[in-house]
Amino acid sequence: MSMELKRRFSKATHRRGLFWNGLRAGYLLVTGKVFMMMVHRRALRKRRDALRNKGAEQFKVVMGLCREAGAKPHLTFGTLLGCYRDRGLIKDDEDFDLGFFPDEIPDMDLLHKKVLEAGFEPHFEGKLQGKLAEIGKYHVRQYLHRDDGVSVDFNMFYRVRNSVVFFEDRSSDYLYREQLRQTGVFDGGQDVIGYAMVYPADIYQSFKKERFLGEEVLVPSGTQRFLELTYGEWKTPTKKFKYDNLRVVVYDASNDRYDFVTPVYPKEI
Predict the structure, then answer these.
(1) How many other CB atoms are there within 10 angstroms of residue 107's CB atom?
(2) I need a labelling partner for 133 at 20 to 30 A (CA). Which of 89, 141, 222, 251 fits?
(3) CB neighbours of 105 closer than 8 A, spacing ≥ 6?
(4) CA 52 to CA 92: how far, in whole Å?
């Protein structure tokens, strides 16, 4: 805000009280939000550029670290989509997505140590809380390379009630607010303990070997079904996805049980 504009706001506020106070507060709120959006978009752009320029090199490093730690990752989410549809990175992707089942990482601490020694730094650590912590410790661990900015996500999948589930905790509210705001489930609040992408177990009945960025990788035998549930019309590049398998995780304290509730709000975001 220029000095002249500040001066005018100050004089107007003094003369007209609440009206101008509200106007000024709205101005600061909007401009602050715009600034944060600009910062966020700039960070994403840097990560996309890093993936294009150094991604193949760092992907080879990460896969090597997984082998050294005895871990067996599979491709998932955007990285799986790129491998299956584009035979490479999808446009505008900003990170690598690797999926793990708990029994595919014999020693998570060892893998974490090796990743740090390779120049990556923790970017986000999503821990399952409350009732969900009985299932596992993490739902995702994100790393960002300190030098070239390449980002990689370790996504944890769990076998629950004849399904395969990727959980997200309440810190993911902002991702699903628009999808769930009319269900009555999200707004109910106190019983919602998280979110989940729920897949039929037969999608992960076995794994197949593919080549991706020069590396031999594993993909689920039901890859096409996974992509249909996660992205809808996955064959056509788009920035809008339909999460047909998104569920709200609701906890019933009286029965000490959590359940997966299907949203009724249109799923396109």
Answers:
(1) 12
(2) 222
(3) 69, 70, 71, 111
(4) 9
pLDDT-above-70 percentage for the chain: 71
Task: Please state the three-class secondary structure of 11-77 as a single string.
Answer: HHHHHHCHHHHHHHHHHHHHHHHHHHHHHHHHHHHHHHHHHHHHHHHHHHHHHHHHHHCCCCCEECH
Q: Is the pLDDT of residue 47 over 50?
A: yes
Q: What is the pLDDT of residue 153?
A: 94
CB 230 within 8 A of CB 245: yes
The pair of structure tokens assigned to 99 is 């999926």
Structural domain spans, the chain:
3-261
Confidence of residue 195 (pLDDT cuts 50, 70, 90): confident
CA atoms 169, 173, 176, 180: torsion sign: positive
HEC profile of 140-200: EEEEEECCCCCEEEEEECEEECCEEEEEECHHHHHHHHHHHCCCCHHHHCCCEEEEEEEEE
pLDDT of 56 above 60: yes
Q: How far is CA 122 from CA 108, 109, 119, 169, 221, in A?
A: 14, 13, 10, 18, 31
pTM to 2 decimals? Answer: 0.78
Q: What is the pLDDT of residues 239-249, one digit of tens each?
A: 666 666 788 88
Spatial separation of the C-alpha atoms in residues 219 and 214, rounded to whole Å: 15
Torsion of CA 230, 95, 239, 163, to 10 degrees: 10
**Predicted confidence (pLDDT) per residue in 196-214, tens digit:** 899 999 999 999 999 999 9
